[in-house]
Amino acid sequence: MEIRKLNTLRGLAALIVFLTHFSDITHWLDGALGGGAGAYGVMLFFLLSGFLMSYLYLDKDFATRSVKHYLVARFARVVPLYVLVVFASFALTKVGSDLLYHIPDHQALMGHLLFLYGDSVLWSIPPEVQFYFVFVLLWALAANRRGYIYLLIVGCLLLLFFTNFPRIYGDIYGVPYNQFTVLRSLPYFFIGVIFGLHYKTLTIPAYLKKHRFVFVLCLIPMMYPELSPITSDAKNRMWLSYEVLLVMSSVFFCVVFLVPDNNILLANKVGDFFGKISYSLYLLHMPVITFIHQFNWAVEIKLIVSFALSTAIAFVSFVCIEKPVADVVRRSAGMGNSIRPVGEGANTDRL
Questions:
Q1: What are the phi and psi torsion angles at 171 (to 5°)?
Q2: Strands 175-178 and 169-172, bridge-based pairing
Q3: What Cα–Cα distance (Å) separates residue 11 from each residue in 6, 43, 189, 213, 271?
Q4: What is the dihedral of CA 210, 214, 219, 224, to 10 degrees?
Q5: Half-sphere exposure of 227 (CA within 13 A, CB side)
Q6: Are 129 and 79 contacting, i.e. CB atoms less than 8 angstroms apart?
Q7: In this structure, how many other beta carbons lie within 10 angstroms of the beta carbon of residue 290?
Q8: How many CA atoms lie within 13 A of 58 on its CB side?
Q9: By C-alpha distance, which of 28, 17, 5, 66 is closest to 283?
Q10: Over the Cα atoms of the chain, what is R_g?
């Protein structure tokens, strides 16, 4: 069953990250859309990731073949482009250019390739990949003792809260690692898993399914540090605040469960397009913004050119790298294109 509105939600997440970084780099609107607010876009990505893994797989038999197909499908979409960007960044850095991302030596390269550390926007890929293996554990529990999933998730949330999200980072023989970014992202992945677990079985009364619930998305900019009416430290702690987790989870629940699937603001061709290219847009927009910012143009022109160029590059990346490489990986693993996630195309189960 297709959940088309998730495409637009993913595209919106990428747009949030883009606008935040543009605001931070150019100080557009006095930086009102910056201040780390791109975190809310990444939170949506992790919620979507947990939701779709759970929705697609937890009701399937936990068997070697199923797990293999799951891992191949996940890695085929996320890893190839990421690895290409990492190697390109390393090569460029070695010749004195930070056109992409700063990966200065072999130790930093290894940290990226082992999914232990990520520079700039690359930080979110290691948690995503590590969550793939966490999900295998949840899937194994769901085979016979699904209730243990809730116990495990609640236990982890409580542990993270009472340990104040342990700052586990450093390096091993010069190879950097940062498990703090994984731990702070884990609650969003878990909430997504719980929602996905119940999407097929939870009956929502017809009188609750209203198009007006789409406006719950307006709560996201209301949490931006420069725009928020909130006076607590939640607006600055973001990842470490369970208040933010509550708001983002509520927004996600309303959009997925309460907004009708045919909502014109969420189910449309523009949303399908940006959902399709969202991963490439997420990975490649920062170098574009940084490059365009060098020109002595009005900030509005920089915004238009940065967005247009980022979108064009993301589309080319999707067509020439993401999709064909993923298809090759699937065919090499003997899968063909048999596993197609819900939503537009085959890109809805990843960042």
A1: -150, 155
A2: antiparallel
A3: 9, 13, 18, 18, 6
A4: 180
A5: 17
A6: yes
A7: 17
A8: 27
A9: 17
A10: 20
User: Can you say how many angstroms the Cα of residue 207 is from the centroid of all Cα atoms in its chain?
Assistant: 32
Question: Tokens at residue 40, please?
Answer: 């809310």
How far is the C-alpha of 20 from the C-alpha of 227, rounded, in Å? 13
| Partners of 170 in the β-ladder | 177
Give the contacts of 46 (CB within 8 A, at least 6 positions apart).
Answer: 124, 127, 128, 131, 185, 188, 189, 192
The model's pTM:
0.93
Q: Does the structure show a pLDDT above 70 at 345?
A: no
- Burial tier of 162 (Cβ tally within 10 Å: 0-12, 13-18, 19+): exposed
Q: Is the predicted pLDDT of residue 325 greater than 90, yes or no?
A: yes
- Record the tokens describing residue 248, joined without a space: 């983002």
Question: Which region holds residue 295: left if phi is over 0, alpha if psi is between -120 and 50, else beta?
Answer: beta
Tell which residue, 98, 93, 15, has the closest CA to residue 285: 15
Which of 276, 263, 283 lies closest to 343, judged by CA? 276
What phi and psi values does residue 169 have, to the nearest 5 degrees? -160, 165
Q: What is the 3-state secondary structure (H, E, C) of the chain?
A: CCCCHHHHHHHHHHHHHHHHHHHHHHCHHHHCCCCCCCHHHHHHHHHHHHHHHHHHHCCCCCCHHHHHHHHHHHHHHHHHHHHHHHHHHHHHHHCCCCCCCCCCCHHHHHHHHCCCCCCHHHHHHHHHHHHHHHHHHHHHHHHHCCHHHHHHHHHHHHHHHHCCCCCCEEEECCEEEECHHHHHHHHHHHHHHHHHHHCCCCCCCHHHCCHHHHHHHHHCHHHCCCCCCCCCCHHHHHHHCHHHHHHHHHHHHHHHHHCCCCCCCCCCHHHHHHHHHHHHHHHHHHHHHHHHCCCCCCHHHHHHHHHHHHHHHHHHHHHHHHHHHHHHHHHHCCCCCCCCCCCCCCCCCCC
Separation between Cα atoms, residue 139 and residue 124, nearest integer Å: 23
Structure tokens at 92: 């460029």
Which percentage of the chain shows pLDDT scores above 70?
95
**Quick one: CA dihedral 146, 147, 153, 156, positive or negative?**
negative
Q: What confidence tier does 341 reach under pLDDT thresholds 50, 70, 90?
A: very low
Length of the chain: 351
